[in-house]
């Protein structure tokens, strides 16, 4: 069932058409990503969904509510992540949660939220004394405090180190598993690939594809490059004769085999038969980066 339905959304700022006919629908219970480079129109799109911006065209339905005229009802079902600048420096974690709880008809048990988010120890800490990761987790807690059916998270892990980023990803999966639908804005390929059930790829205000990360990747060539250093001399022609192998090159002491389908299996079986070990084996395959490049003609600038 579609929980968010966006049809032909248009939003202009003066002469700039930031969102130019965007359509997608988000199913209940999924993590739906909006992926695109900076300036693609991602934030504008979600701000229209949140009712923070007035659209110039198209329609939006969030659980049957039109954000343009139903903002009170919408607030009860949709939780948005705050931008960091929206909290005063000196507010304590507990105070922020008490304040935001008071805005909702059925607020969540925020002690439980703190526990889930690993912030219990920081209850009495001022906002300005929190680390980047802790601030991020607090903003997630505030997005969830009204027990929303949908949480909108914008550039969730920007500025976090890789470990904090991975922790945040598992946290978001837990939130999804608890029944909250998540709309996630990101320009990180790895985040989109790891976290999203489906993605809308947006470029210059337009949707260029909607699919699962694996679906997007499968639209590009399934070519693989298998690179290794053989432990003993190996006749390249044997490799070239293997099924699904298209090319074999030497690169110093390494061999690089290009192929598709079952090439990797064929290469490893041949090496096993010849009792040759493939040292420093690396297999490169198409990634979401390649899919993005194929769809938009350029690389995303992380
Ligand atoms: P993204 O979130 O993908 O980085 P945005 O939705 O923030 O993209 O911006 C899309 C386009 O709209 C950009 O060209 C940006 O400069 C422009 N834009 C965004 N907000 C405003 C605004 N308040 N006034 C004028 N132009 C804006």
Automatic annotation (TrEMBL):
Determine the domain of life of the protein's source.
Bacteria
Going by the UniProt record, its keywords in alphabetical order are:
Antibiotic resistance, ATP-binding, Cell membrane, Membrane, Nucleotide-binding, Translocase, Transport
In the record, biological process GO terms are: response to antibiotic
Q: What is its main location?
A: membrane
- GO CC term, one of those recorded: plasma membrane
Q: Where, subcellularly, is it found?
A: Cell membrane
Q: Which residues form the ABC transporter domain?
A: 4-229
| Membrane topology according to the record | Peripheral membrane protein
Q: In its UniProt entry, what is this protein called?
A: ABC-2 type transport system ATP-binding protein
Upper taxonomic lineage: Bacteria, Bacillati, Actinomycetota, Actinomycetes, Pseudonocardiales
